[in-house]
Amino acid sequence: MTSTVRGSQLARLLGQWHALPGRRRSPDYAALAGAIRGLLADGRLPLGVRLPAERELAEALKVSRTTVTAAYRELRETGHLTSRRGAGSWTTLPGGHRVASSGLWTPQDDLDMIDLGVAALAAPPELVPAARAAAEDLPRYLHGAGYHPTGIVELREAVARGYTDRGLPTSPEQIMVTNGTQHALDLVLRLTLPVGAGVLVESPTYPNALAALVARRARIATHGLAAAPEGDGAGWDGELLLAGLRQTRPRLAYLIPEFQNPTGHLMPAELRESVVAAAHTSGTDLIIDESFVDLPLDGTPMPPPTAVFDRHSRVICIGGMSKPYWGGMRIGWVRASAPLVQRLAAARVGVDMASPVLDQLVAVRLLAQAATIVPARRVQLAAQRDALLAAVAEMLPDWRVSVPGGGVTLWAELDGPVSSALARAAEDVGVRLAPGPRFGLDGTLERFLRLPFTLPAAELVDAVHRIAAVRYDLDRASRPRWSEPAVIA
What we know:
Layout: H1 7-14, H2 28-41, H3 54-61, H4 65-77, E1 81-84, E2 88-91, E3 114-115, H5 127-137, H6 153-165, E4 175-178, H7 181-192, E5 198-203, H8 207-215, E6 219-224, H9 238-248, E7 252-255, H10 269-282, E8 285-289, E9 315-320, E10 332-335, H11 338-348, H12 357-368, H13 370-395, E11 400-401, E12 409-413, H14 419-428, E13 431-432, E14 434-435, E15 448-452, H15 457-471
Parallel strand pairs: 3-13, 5-6, 5-7, 7-8, 8-9
Antiparallel strand pairs: 1-2, 4-10, 9-10, 11-12, 12-15, 14-15
Helix pairs in contact: 1-3, 2-4, 3-4, 5-12, 6-12, 7-8, 7-11, 9-10, 13-15
């Protein structure tokens, strides 16, 4: 699964890496080593990737080979590079870090805690009337056993209609209803991913997807996303993403093209088409997580669904109602070819048989009101996002936060690698955070923090006040202690 970064690619990632001029100027080799360590810590350069040969990188950077040789030597000494004669040098982290499979932890409810670990809205007012109406619809299903492995036909028709309206013709036979998006991912992995097979994911990415992959003992490779969008198509480095698919030839790739969790990036149509073509060439199936596709803000134009470019049944879409509607609605779905849906249904029988009929009827009622519910959610989220952005700009001005065009989260670049320490300190003042390392592998992403804007604006502003109060006390570190585990959703 080892992929290679070419000299020109690494040079582009490094940008302005040279040592600053001045009386205390450090050698160029030290500056180069520090810049590469920074790429690793931020997750922009994956772990386990083979770096270019010394001569190739020297030519790309227009420096002497001696400078690159010394930089690689320093990286080996600090544990950030492992070399073997004849095999090259690949990126590592000191101390033998490994993937942490924390899974989904559920703490006890604490009404005094502002929980920024969960990126989900409270239920819409339409939910209770929809539940009452669904109970009236239930007698139509009571004559049977109640097991519908692919879902009741009414809901599958509604979900298929949503895909068709987005420009992707879909029949109900291509839909399987699941108990949430995470359940959809788990079922797809059970069917399509042999134990120990290779998987390509973004870095950062959704923590519970990583947990599901670790549970399958997958060999995980990462594609690093840019810290903040800068112009069209920012976030995904198309050249490196496509190279990762072609070089590692993973069995699966898990991607979140719409308002990526946690960065908020939106993948452009051109890259979607290229990714599907590369996946076909490499024999890779694409799992496309569309959890946030209904939540563009500020009139952000939406690219076509990734599956529009699929001609070989390589794209499996998963989605659900947790983000635009309510997390307590454990309704998700898989959109795939009809034969694959039938295979998923057969595999599901050994897991949970089927989704609850009453919940599906509630979902049908809510989807029928999507034209009213979803626009109201977008207005709510845009106002809360703007309040959070303003609070961060005022109270934490050294943080770098971009404005996402949709979704429910900000991805903040902090003023230092303090994300985990800040999360521990924030617990003491009643704020639960999801630190950057939860969204990556091997302890990277300590300079980043996910901030959802799903709570009321007043609570978000209060949370930022509390975070700012403890941020500047971190230098007076107290003794580390164990804390209660938290939901990251």
